[in-house]
Specification:
alpha/beta, five-stranded mixed beta sheet, 5 strands
């Protein structure tokens, strides 16, 4: 969420639009992949990147058919903890290719590995489908599609996404990570008195026997 909001704010600044009057489709491309619709400074919809929906990723399973997932839960191969690890750390590209490093996978593709090429194309296809869905969810004009995260450094992935969804809006690419920059910016804004810090109260419940 921090990366999505920070990237949207940075994208708005880059095209000279007020963040509060903008519309972006955000795609965070990392070990997990999040796709979000950001309208007028608010995240109006997004995929659950860790487990449950969206495209498969270098390590995560993404959306799975429910019938087969139920079978997997009850076939005895995994306990609860093991299954969560299987679907979040050993699924996606690594399950197909035994590798989750995109530079290494791209080397295999250049060497003629057709399985690697098909797996990456399938992942990009699923990302593009989610971008298309979020273009409906945003409920208004889209100023840009914004790509962030480590996989945004992949020319292959970026070009394939441009081919599939580039007609929806211009594409802005941030190859660097924006989370630390966003946290530093927020802290400076508080110290300068530009925004009020939010205060959270932790409530503890004690069971009374």
């Amino acid at each position: 969420i921090l990366s999505i909001r920070a990237s949207a704010r940075k994208a708005a600044a880059s095209i000279g639009r007020p963040f509060e009057r903008s519309g972006f489709l955000l795609v965070h491309l990392g070990g997990g992949i999040s796709v979000a619709a950001v309208r007028n400074g608010n995240i109006v919809d997004n995929t659950i990147a860790l487990l449950g929906e969206g495209p498969f990723t270098p390590q995560r399973a993404g959306t799975l058919p429910q019938n087969e997932l139920i079978d997997l839960c009850y076939d005895g191969a995994f306990d609860r903890k093991q299954l969560k690890e299987e679907l979040t750390k050993r699924a996606g590209l690594i399950s197909y290719l035994g590798e989750d490093s995109m530079p290494e996978i791209e080397k295999r593709i250049l060497d003629g590995d057709e399985t690697a090429e098909k797996a990456v194309r399938a992942m990009v296809y699923q990302i593009a489908k989610e971008v298309g869905a979020m273009s409906i969810a945003i409920g208004g004009p889209v100023d840009a599609i914004v790509l962030t995260g480590g996989l945004a450094r992949s020319t292959r992935i970026v070009n394939d996404l441009k081919r599939r969804v580039g007609h929806l809006a211009q594409m802005i690419i941030f190859k660097e990570t924006v989370e630390m920059e966003a946290m530093a910016s927020g802290a400076l804004s508080v110290l300068r008195g530009q925004i009020e810090p939010k205060r959270y109260q932790l409530r503890l419940q004690r069971e009374i026997a």
